[in-house]
């Protein structure tokens, strides 16, 4: 029995790297869901917008990479706020399914805009991460994956701390737990909505830049959003912890399926997990079980 | 309800088309449909066939989403099941066309029943995502079950043949597709005059209340899934005869979104809405092609066509949901109401 343990470890590390990005994007998703109860199918496209903004700024305007990323993140945040104000706010009080479809439409618009400006050809982001190989024990980890994971983990930690201690974060959590009560305690709920979309878009943009740096950018990179959707459903739509755990889990499983069975099994494996979780725990691993009353 | 249609019997009250005006317009529509292929050129016949297929599938999705309130993003995958069934039967057994289409419908129905099973436990968006999962799994099956589906290369389908007549042009296929679609739409319209259809509507409005009132939820939700995917299966079968090649990439997720968009744009939960939505969503890309062709652009006109289409597609979904949630059907109703009393009252 000469099982290739080294191969397994390397695959698991790569999976953790991807999982970190899933967790980060899942965090953005959960933030929007908790504050506004919107299931945002456009999260993958928001990621893409961030990556393309960065690409455009870095290549067409020749900005240094750090500035390009910074401006792209701020630009994405503004785009997120705009989307919320124009398309999501008018849907307040409509059925969740209608709002969900609005985000589907938004996703389509964003893809179209990107193809219109940058065409549908795949592009490469300029290199900006250290390229010295990273070894953990004996296992080789691609440097981009390693640093991507570091950035993701740091950002998640910062975001969690911010939502624990910052005033706006507290307002967001208050709105999430009871919108009306939050309103009557003087919290400006519409502004919380704006805030959540802005911050989520900024987080998504950072994730997009990292994803783009690892795998290149194209107008179909919104498919990443599909995996993120699986992550948040498996973790429970309204659970930050769920998004983090499920993000890592899905990342590792996807990587294992890709490594041992072949690339076409990746999506199949994640969606199989999704189906099993839905059958066993319909509200995800850590989601709130909603009780319906007549 | 319009003025001047006093109903004097229960039969009249129950009837699907209850006024003279409606009968007259239906007759006009029938004549128009019969005459259309003799005046239209190949391009318009091609579009007409495509519209017929899309109407069939959209009507099916409307039963599930518009009337029963269960959102599905798997309609294209069910069409895929139908298309593959028809293609495989045609290729391996050479059974008659109408039987193939029916078989496609029933196999898709079985698929729909399996996918519908979680619908009792999960609702709303969780269900929508579960149907995405189903379509991912189905795509995998289409791509990897080589002995039946032919893998990534897919299956080439021979032209449909009934009683020695080969349906190999859009003109001929029109006579096959339009009657089938008309039958299916009529069936759906009648469905909502029966206990089953009413039960669907009750489930949509509040499923727990419906259960309290004695509607077995699992059975009816499954039935709705089954019916909807039957429609998709038959539509997929027609699709196979129309495009004559079926590959795993023929039925992507965006196609399911297209049908859901057609239901929304047309107007959820109305028969007319599904028809209008399907016609509109099929014609818009063609209209765009025309407009982009007219614009004084240089050679890259075709280059911007595809992104513009994507943008318009998304903008239509968002625009209708924000500004006209009841869809085209509501616009149509307003126009009709205006003309009811028209020269006498504005």
From TrEMBL, chain B:
It comes from Thauera mechernichensis. Its main location: membrane. It is found in: Cell membrane. This is Branched-chain amino acid ABC transporter permease. CDD domains: TM_PBP1_LivM_like. Keywords: Cell membrane, Membrane, Transmembrane, Transmembrane helix. The chain crosses the membrane at residues 21-39, 45-63, 70-89, 95-117, 124-142, 173-192, 222-242, 254-280, 311-328. It is a multi-pass membrane protein. Coiled coil: none annotated. It holds the Pfam family BPD_transp_2. PANTHER family: ABC TRANSPORTER PERMEASE PROTEIN (PTHR30482:SF5), HIGH-AFFINITY BRANCHED-CHAIN AMINO ACID TRANSPORT SYSTEM PERMEASE (PTHR30482).
């Amino acid at each position: 029995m000469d099982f290739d343990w080294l191969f397994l470890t390397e695959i698991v590390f790569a999976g953790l790297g991807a999982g970190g990005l899933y967790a980060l994007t899942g965090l953005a998703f959960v933030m929007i869901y908790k504050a506004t109860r919107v299931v945002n199918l456009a999260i993958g496209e928001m990621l893409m917008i961030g990556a393309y903004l960065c690409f455009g700024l870095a290549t067409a305007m020749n900005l240094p990479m750090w500035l390009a990323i910074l401006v792209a993140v701020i630009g994405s945040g503004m785009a997120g706020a705009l989307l919320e104000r124009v398309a999501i706010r008018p849907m307040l009080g409509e059925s969740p399914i209608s709002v969900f479809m609005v985000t589907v439409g938004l996703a389509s618009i964003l893809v179209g805009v990107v193809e219109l400006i940058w065409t549908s050809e795949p592009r490469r982001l300029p290199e900006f991460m250290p390229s010295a190989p990273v070894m953990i024990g004996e296992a080789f980890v691609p440097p981009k994956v390693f640093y991507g994971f570091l950035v993701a983990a740091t950002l998640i930690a910062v975001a969690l701390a911010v939502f624990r201690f910052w005033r706006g974060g507290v307002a967001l959590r208050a709105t999430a737990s009871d919108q009306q009560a939050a309103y009557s305690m003087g919290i400006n709920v519409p502004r919380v909505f704006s805030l959540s979309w802005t911050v989520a878009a900024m987080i998504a943009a950072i994730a997009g830049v990292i994803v783009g740096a690892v795998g290149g950018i194209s107008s179909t990179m919104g498919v990443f959003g599909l995996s993120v959707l699986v992550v948040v459903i498996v973790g429970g739509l309204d659970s930050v912890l769920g998004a983090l755990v499920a993000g890592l889990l899905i990342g590792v499983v996807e990587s294992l399926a890709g490594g041992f069975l072949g690339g076409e099994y990746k999506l199949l494996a994640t969606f199989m997990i999704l189906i099993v979780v839905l059958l066993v725990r319909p509200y995800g691993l850590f989601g709130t079980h909603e009780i319906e009353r007549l | 309800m319009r003025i001047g249609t006093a109903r004097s019997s229960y039969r009249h009250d129950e009837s699907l088309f209850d006024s003279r005006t409606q009968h007259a317009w239906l007759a006009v529509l029938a004549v128009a449909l019969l005459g259309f292929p003799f005046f239209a050129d190949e391009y318009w016949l091609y579009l007409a066939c495509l519209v017929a297929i899309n109407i069939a599938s959209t009507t099916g999705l409307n039963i599930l989403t518009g009337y029963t309130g269960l959102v599905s993003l798997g309609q294209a995958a069910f069409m895929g099941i139908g298309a593959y069934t028809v293609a495989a039967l045609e290729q391996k057994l050479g059974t008659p066309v109408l039987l193939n289409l029916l078989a496609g419908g029933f196999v898709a129905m079985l698929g729909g029943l399996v996918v519908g099973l979680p619908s009792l436990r999960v609702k709303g968006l969780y269900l929508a995502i579960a149907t995405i999962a189903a379509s991912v799994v189905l795509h995998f099956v289409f791509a990897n079950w080589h002995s039946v589906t032919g893998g990534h290369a897919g299956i080439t389908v021979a032209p449909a043949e009934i009683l020695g007549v080969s349906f190999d042009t859009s003109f001929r296929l029109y006579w096959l597709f339009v009657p089938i679609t008309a039958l299916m739409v009529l069936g759906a319209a009648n469905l909502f005059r029966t206990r089953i259809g009413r039960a669907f509507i009750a489930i949509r409005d509040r499923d727990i209340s419906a259960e309290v009132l004695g509607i077995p939820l699992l059975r009816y939700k499954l039935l709705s899934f089954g019916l909807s995917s039957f429609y998709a299966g038959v539509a997929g079968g027609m699709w196979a005869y129309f495009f004559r090649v079926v590959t795993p990439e023929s039925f992507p997720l965006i196609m399911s979104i297209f049908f859901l968009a057609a239901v929304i744009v047309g107007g959820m939960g109305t028969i007319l809405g599904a028809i209008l939505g399907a016609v509109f969503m099929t014609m818009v890309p063609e209209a765009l092609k025309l407009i982009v062709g007219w614009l004084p652009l240089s050679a890259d006109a075709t280059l911007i066509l595809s992104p513009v289409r994507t943008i318009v597609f998304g903008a239509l979904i968002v625009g209708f949901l924000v500004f006209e949630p009841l869809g085209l059907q509501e616009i149509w109703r307003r126009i009709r109401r205006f003309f009811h009393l028209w020269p006498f009252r504005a």
